[in-house]
């Protein structure tokens, strides 16, 4: 009997959704940063084994939106809860349930599929704090399973995977077995560049940046030439991104090129230009051009 299903991972920003997906997949397919609201799109990653296929939907963190990009992100996350076979609600240990998690719990109350409470980052917290978190959340919602994990270190992740398979319905193979993501190479390349910018730049700049792949072509020797616009909202941000003597942009380019070459398994000539598009996060046309197409 072959089992298959769609699993969505929801939670506040920066609770470790992408880290968990990447660990389970054994591949870096979602960008990871210590800054919240890193993931902006629903990204499907596909794990196929001999007896099952799991399609994970890694969603943006659910938060109170401050601009149209934020609205897109929250709508994407909410839409991902509908018509799935299982929901993983990812939290971190906290003795009180915050407003953000209560908002997500309310969104889950009409959910027909089973919901797992997955408590991440247990290695960074005391046993008592983790235990109190489990008790408090179990009073608020009837979870099918409650699993404490460390996505970063892999603690209990295999147990979580076994439980997911247990709850999967019998079903077809939705994707070819060698397919690990539903996004194009260009999307992954853009996300790698954005991740390196997030890790290099100051706190006030990252949420105001986007990456647009202008050109991506491969020559007959296999080498890729990739041209990228790194978009920011303010002229002052452009200076920060470029940095003194171009050092920040150089660091972004070097670290991004290294990881893109690992992903594409070919040499890469990466060119990055910094462009200012004022208030692009509130411009529906620019958002659509950049791939955020589900604005409501």
From TrEMBL:
One of its GO terms (biological process) is ribosomal small subunit assembly. One of its GO terms (molecular function) is small ribosomal subunit rRNA binding. HAMAP family: GTPase_Era. InterPro entries: G_ERA_dom (IPR030388), GTP-bd (IPR006073), GTPase_Era-like (IPR005662), KH_dom-like_a/b (IPR015946), KH_dom_type_2 (IPR004044), KH_sf_prok-type (IPR009019), P-loop_NTPase (IPR027417), Small_GTP-bd (IPR005225). Residues 120-123 are annotated as: G4. Residues 37-41 are annotated as: G2. Residues 58-61 are annotated as: G3. The keyword GTP-binding applies. Its main location: cytoplasm. Residues 3-170 form the Era-type G domain. The keyword Cell membrane applies. The lineage of its organism: Bacteria, Bacillati, Bacillota, Clostridia, Eubacteriales. The gene is era. Residues 201-278 form the KH type-2 domain. This is GTPase Era.
